[in-house]
Amino acid sequence: MTKHALKIFVLIVAVVVLARLPGLFGKGPGPSLVIAPGYRVVTWAKKLGQPRLMVATATRDLIVSTYRDGTVLLLKKDADGDGVSDGKQVLLSGLNMPHGLVLEKDTLYLAEEHRVSQYHFDGNSLTKRKTILANIPEDGGHNSRTLKRGPDGWFYLSIGSSCNVCIEEHPWRASIIRFKIGTKSQVYAKGLRNTVGFDWHPVTDALYGVNAGSDLLGDDIPPEEMNLIEQGKHYGWPYVHSTKFKDPRYGPKTPKTLTFTPPVHSFTAHSTPLSIRFLKSKLLPTALVGRHGSWNRSEKSGYDVVKLIWQPDGTISQSPFLTGFVKDDNAIGRPVDVLQVPDGSIFISDDEAGVIYKVQAIK
User: Fold this and answer.
1) CATH code at position 275
2) How many domains does one find in the chain?
3) Which residues contact 311 (CB under 8 A, 6 or more apart)?
């Protein structure tokens, strides 16, 4: 090949690579992201509005709730091998803050702010809606509802507080409830201001949840929590925060008979952990936590995905997994959910950039 021909070839390759960058990185942080050693990350789907929670279908598509957009999307798998989703379609629209998703064979369970419904899913559409839980409180704030099926067969639903800090009137507020279809629901645990993310330990079946604490108490108070959530336990809110810092208003009003359960791990204050997912691992139990980021802290915290490892001595270590969502002190991405699919790939939703990232181990 002559030098002139080589230059033309290099130019063509450069043009092709540059043309592919929008498809790989889209609107989001893309090239600024820093992934833990041994992994690579690409933007798998973009222009999704505000994607939140995800489930994988039997055909390797993703169903995604977009929460504030009021829609549920179907994102097609990467069948052509170009590294990105082959397209999207709207499955449902006009919903009331759709969030929690559970997919079991041809049935999708969907949690909106005020109800939980089931749908028939044929691989391309959702039909035959039926309400399975109604009358969920929808006054005030914290209107996302995370729904999961526990290893015990019960559905678990997190319902955040209606306020920053207050005494709730509705018993379901600031709690996780559980229910079976056709039976009366029950409050499982209380004192959880906003436990959006929860998951079960793959070995012990213990339930862990990450909790976003109260605002306006200072930059470093209270630390965000990860709790080992057990039936009948109370985790402090609104009387104490992280079961260590008494609330200036409600601390003195703590019922004398109330016992609080302390967190098993803490995160930087106001970093807003919104998800926890245990990974398939042959080593020590490992989970990823998506931290959405602070909104009123003088120095930003969160805006990342961190890895937690349950050590043999019972401690839990924390290390960065995916960072780079803050540039020049501006948030250009906000991680939400984490989902690992059967082939080991990890999907991460970002409701600020409107994208979903795909993380794979480097072989």
Assistant:
1) 2.120.10.30
2) 1
3) 284, 317
What residues have CB less than 8 Å from 255, skipping those under 6 apart? none
Q: What is the pLDDT of residues 219-276, one digit of tens each?
A: 999 999 999 999 999 999 999 999 889 999 999 999 999 999 999 999 999 999 999 9
* Structure letter (DSSP) for residue 263: P
Q: With CA atoms as reference, report the closest residue to 360 among 44, 86, 29, 2.
A: 44
Secondary structure percentages of the chain, helix, strand, coil, to 5: 10, 40, 50
**Which H or E element spans position 24?**
helix 3-25
- Domain that includes residue 169, residue range: 26-46+78-87+96-361
- Token pair in block for residue 284: 């020590």
Which of the four pLDDT bands, split at 50, 70 and 90, describes residue 30?
A: low
CA–CA separation, 358 and 83 (whole Å): 9
Residue 44 identity: W
